[in-house]
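$ ./design --mode recover --in tokens.txt
reading tokens...
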């Protein structure tokens, strides 16, 4: 049941003398708000933005519909102040998806809708594409001598000469303060001209060509594009390097040839400039890209071009699943197993799952691509809800990388590297091939301890150790962000004998630079790539052969294509083997396969070394000896026996408060209400403390609800949430509901 529906059933509604407009307003209240339609004109239609009085302020809201009744007394209704849009800002199909999502995830409809609008539209900017002025150098400008007495003009002229394309105002402003006057002067001299361009450039297909598909790729494209114009759901299970992206490209090409649009979702770290470039080179038409790095006007432009159908291809991360499309033709989700598709705070939706819902609503095919499909998708395949297409071989018959377990028990380790791994690195260096080492822990050392008294550096606000970062000489908490300068003596006993325990990427980098003084070592993690453009610089250096050893966290695990990497090392596989999270095994297996997929993508075959203290662990054995598909089948079987997702559906209620008792008291009442609302159709587990109980100074606890039937769970949530909101104990905690949670922490 949608929020709007639930709201309607809460109280009896009265027939009104004038039309009532139902408006979604960005507010944590789980309801829609009624207003009188403005007098003397037709009431605004669904999807239009309106200005409304809200308490003592004015807000912008989005009309959900017009009604003849209201639960409010006529004397309490106020009129809409102003209608902003002439045509719906959000088309009906988008509203339908957003209302569905608000209902399913039980999140306030106003926040859901406003979260899906570009910032400028939230502020009331017209929803119209604006053309943009850009500037470029004229032929005369190329010949001219830069004016030495006007340094600003000279600098701008030189800058523009080096640009391939005309440049917009934002980029000029970043180049030179006071650019507008300088540009005008250059225009008057005839050296620079302004051009009026659409806000998004077209593609340039002259620079890239379609590849001749392998027979397996051809079959995949045929099956995906067979039955355009109707819903079907496909899992494209292709090993790393099997050419999935090429399948997307050619399927999209066909969809566009039919006059329809394609939406491609990419995980956060998969959306690299290389990926976008590959698309822009292939197509002659504009490719709109939506990601967090855009400024407000770029985002508005991409969003409007998608809505107006002038961008036939839209590529974006999670939130792009809500972008309106005028002529939807296909939705594709790359690396569908990736965690970044699930939003972990606020409106906790899964873009992967919503992509399937949306495809169904809009009657278009959806493709979920991965080398390591999630157990959820494999379960849907087994149930016949999805069709499967396999690309079992790498392109051009390149061999799969060889996976080998390295038993590190009792071995001397250098920053976590065993002798076997070190000698494999030396061998790769000898053959002038590149090595990629994977370690999912940034910083120098994950703990610092006093050798004399055993004191350990703890975060004051979390149940966690502080990580030592050597480059900045600081101790940092990776959970709440607290940091302080590294101590030079033990605060307990004054000893100077402080030891760094364990290794992170910083230490690994230092140790390898020591062991291989002639090799160039590069580290890629959130610390080393914080600067804009830093990640790109690393990738270019790897391609140019300017680095021999690459060290990285999961940022490096996915999507990259480094043809000269032949050796991949997983420095520490143990963390994933003994986690309390039931999804840890699935994650570790996916990660190992993805990292391994970086090896041997070029002419030379690849080798993957996985270091562990548990070489006989059944998960590792199944994965290595029988592959991901076999591993996944066994993991699914275990989930079924243990009654875990995808065999049951879950919702998690989290609560946090400065004092533990407040969080627990609220959750206990909540649990009572669940039992009351659902009896034994919904199982309640908890309240229990969260896996990390204290974080950022607050005590955290949670309540897990699960049911074998999705409908039982959702019926319960519908009844239960309004009662939960009314609890007195709710006011003393911060709480949130997570439907289909992926992380139990
Ligand atoms: P995946 O997305 O499955 O990892 P990609 O689509 O990135 O694979 O393809 C891996 C590499 O193989 C890329 O360099 C790509 O250009 C190349 N490739 C893909 N399909 C073909 C083809 N049909 N013929 C030649 N090369 C191909
Ligand atoms: Zn001490
Ligand atoms: Zn902390």
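writing sequence...
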């Amino acid at each position: 049941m949608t929020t709007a529906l639930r709201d309607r059933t809460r109280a009896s509604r009265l027939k009104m003398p004038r039309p009532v407009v139902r408006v979604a307003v960005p507010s944590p209240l789980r309801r829609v708000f009624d207003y009188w339609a403005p007098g003397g004109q037709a009431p605004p239609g669904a999807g239009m933005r309106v200005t409304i009085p809200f308490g003592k302020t004015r807000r912008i809201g989005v009309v959900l519909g017009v009604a003849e009744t209201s639960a409010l007394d006529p004397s309490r209704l106020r009129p809409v102040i102003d209608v902003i849009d002439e045509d719906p800002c959000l088309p009906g199909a988008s509203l339908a998806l957003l209302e569905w999502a608000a209902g399913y995830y039980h999140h306030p409809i106003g926040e859901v809708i406003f979260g899906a609008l570009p910032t400028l539209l939230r502020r009331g900017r017209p929803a119209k594409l604006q053309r943009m002025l850009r500037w470029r150098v004229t032929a005369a400008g190329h010949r001219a001598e830069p004016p030495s007495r006007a340094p600003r003009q000279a600098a701008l002229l030189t800058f523009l000469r080096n640009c391939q394309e005309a440049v917009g105002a934002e980029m000029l402003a970043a180049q030179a303060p006071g650019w507008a006057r300088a540009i005008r002067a250059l225009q008057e001299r005839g050296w620079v001209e302004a051009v009026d361009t659409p806000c998004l450039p077209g593609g340039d297909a002259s620079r890239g060509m379609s590849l001749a598909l392998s027979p397996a790729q051809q079959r995949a494209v045929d099956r995906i594009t067979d039955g355009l114009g109707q819903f079907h759901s496909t899992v494209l299970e292709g090993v790393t390097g099997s050419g999935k992206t090429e399948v997307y490209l050619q399927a999209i090409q066909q969809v566009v040839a039919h006059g329809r649009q394609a939406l491609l979702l990419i995980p956060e770290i998969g959306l690299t400039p290389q990926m976008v470039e590959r698309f822009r080179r292939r197509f002659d038409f504009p490719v709109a890209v939506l990601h967090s790095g855009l400024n407000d006007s770029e985002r508005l432009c991409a969003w409007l071009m998608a809505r107006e159908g002038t961008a036939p291809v839209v590529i974006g991360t999670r939130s792009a699943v809500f972008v309106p499309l005028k002529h939807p033709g296909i939705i594709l989700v790359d690396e569908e197993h990736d965690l970044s598709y699930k939003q972990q705070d606020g409106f906790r939706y899964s873009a992967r799952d919503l992509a399937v819902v949306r495809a169904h609503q809009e009657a278009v095919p959806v493709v979920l691509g991965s080398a390591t499909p999630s157990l959820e998708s494999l379960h849907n395949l087994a149930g016949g809800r999805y069709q499967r297409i396999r690309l079992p071989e790498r392109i051009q018959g390149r061999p799969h990388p060889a996976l080998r377990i390295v038993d590190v028990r009792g071995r001397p380790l250098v920053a976590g590297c065993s002798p076997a791994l070190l000698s494999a690195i030396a061998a790769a260096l000898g053959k002038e091939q590149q090595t990629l080492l994977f370690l999912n822990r940034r910083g120098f050392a994950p703990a610092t301890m006093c050798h004399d008294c055993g004191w350990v550096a703890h975060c004051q606000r979390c149940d966690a150790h502080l990580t030592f970062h050597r480059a900045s000489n600081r101790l940092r908490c990776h959970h709440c962000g607290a940091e302080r300068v590294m101590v030079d003596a033990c605060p307990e006993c004054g000893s100077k004998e402080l030891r760094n325990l364990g290794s992170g990427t910083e230490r690994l980098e230092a140790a390898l630079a020591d062991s291989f003084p002639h090799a160039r070592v590069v580290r890629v993690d959130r610390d080393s790539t914080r600067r804009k453009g830093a990640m790109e610089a690393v990738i270019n250096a790897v391609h140019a052969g300017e680095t021999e050893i690459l060290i990285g966290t999961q940022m490096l695990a996915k999507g990259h294509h480094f043809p000269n990497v032949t050796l991949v090392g997983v420095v520490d596989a143990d963390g994933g083997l003994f986690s309390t999270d039931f999804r840890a095994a699935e994650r570790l297996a996916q990660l190992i396969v993805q990292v391994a997929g970086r090896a041997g993508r070029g002419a030379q075959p690849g080798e993957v070394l996985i270091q562990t203290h548990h070489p006989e662990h059944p998960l590792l054995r199944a994965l290595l000896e029988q592959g991901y598909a076999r591993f996944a089948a066994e993991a699914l079987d275990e989930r079924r026996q243990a009654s875990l997702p995808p065999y049951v559906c879950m919702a998690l209620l989290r609560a946090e408060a400065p004092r533990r008792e407040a969080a627990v008291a609220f959750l206990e009442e909540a649990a009572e209400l669940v039992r009351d609302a659902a009896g034994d159709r919904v199982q309640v587990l908890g309240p229990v403390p969260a896996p990390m109980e204290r974080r950022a100074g607050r005590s955290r606890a949670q309540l897990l609800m699960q049911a074998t039937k999705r409908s039982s769970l959702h019926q319960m949530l519908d009844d239960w949430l309004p009662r939960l909101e009314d609890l007195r104990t709710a006011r003393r905690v911060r709480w949130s509901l997570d439907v289909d949670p992926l992380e139990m922490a």
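exit 0
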